[in-house]
User: Which sequence fits this backbone?
């Protein structure tokens, strides 16, 4: 399967600042990547589908102006949490779409907003 | 919209006991996938089932896909402490963008 990295693995920021999270597909050209959010002991909540060279597709209820997604190349997608607030604290995970609908996940980024 | 339900939400077993988690979809699925997430980790793809009634085994893990392609199960024989984690099932969410609908997961804890 695909090898996916995320950076940073952990980030602590002050309320009101913006945070950028990178998701890289290291050995696979990823036309499609996904961004999820996961609360402690909860399931994965799909935030958006990131498509290389085009606008991301956001799930219902996800603010596109707050969670900016850029997929500028076949190996890199970024998620920027703008004007972060404590309620944005969460575990953010990206995944790469593999063969036959399977997904390969990055190690995740734990965001804490103070 | 499509819903994928999983039971139980939690399961605690003694090491050596068997474990089963069940997954049900509100719609017929073209395939079903299982993922495992260790505590503090990220989901890892385990297996994909495609055919009606399909059964696949990975060592002590047995995966089944129902005849109607709407339900699935994961059975672990003689659990070990390394089996601890949350097991998610997932099915294609429809459309052409390859997204998946995940169940809420079953958290398995194993008492040594």
Assistant:
């Amino acid at each position: 399967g695909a090898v996916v990295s995320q950076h940073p693995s952990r980030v602590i920021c002050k309320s009101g600042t913006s945070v950028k999270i990178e998701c890289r597909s290291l050995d696979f050209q990823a036309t499609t990547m996904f961004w999820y959010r996961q609360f402690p002991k909860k399931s994965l909540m799909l935030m958006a589908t990131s498509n290389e060279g085009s606008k991301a597709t956001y799930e219902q209820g996800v603010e596109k102006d707050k969670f900016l997604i850029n997929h500028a190349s076949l190996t890199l997608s970024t998620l920027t949490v703008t004007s972060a607030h404590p309620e944005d604290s969460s575990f953010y995970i990206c995944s790469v779409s593999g063969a036959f609908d399977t997904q390969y996940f990055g190690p995740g980024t734990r965001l804490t907003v103070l | 919209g499509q819903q994928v339900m999983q039971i139980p939400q939690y399961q605690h077993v003694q090491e050596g006991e068997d474990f089963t988690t069940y997954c049900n979809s509100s719609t017929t699925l073209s395939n079903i996938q299982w993922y495992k997430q260790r505590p503090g980790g990220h989901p890892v793809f385990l297996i994909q089932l495609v055919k009606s009634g399909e059964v696949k085994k990975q060592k002590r893990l047995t995966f089944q896909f129902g005849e109607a392609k709407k339900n699935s199960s994961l059975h672990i024989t003689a659990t070990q402490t390394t089996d601890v984690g949350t097991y998610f099932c997932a099915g294609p969410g429809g459309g052409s963008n390859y997204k998946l609908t995940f169940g809420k997961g079953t958290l398995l804890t194993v008492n040594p």
Remarks:
- The mean pLDDT of chain B is 94.
- The longest strand of chain B covers residues 85-92.
- Chain B touches chain A through 24 residues (CB under 8 Å).
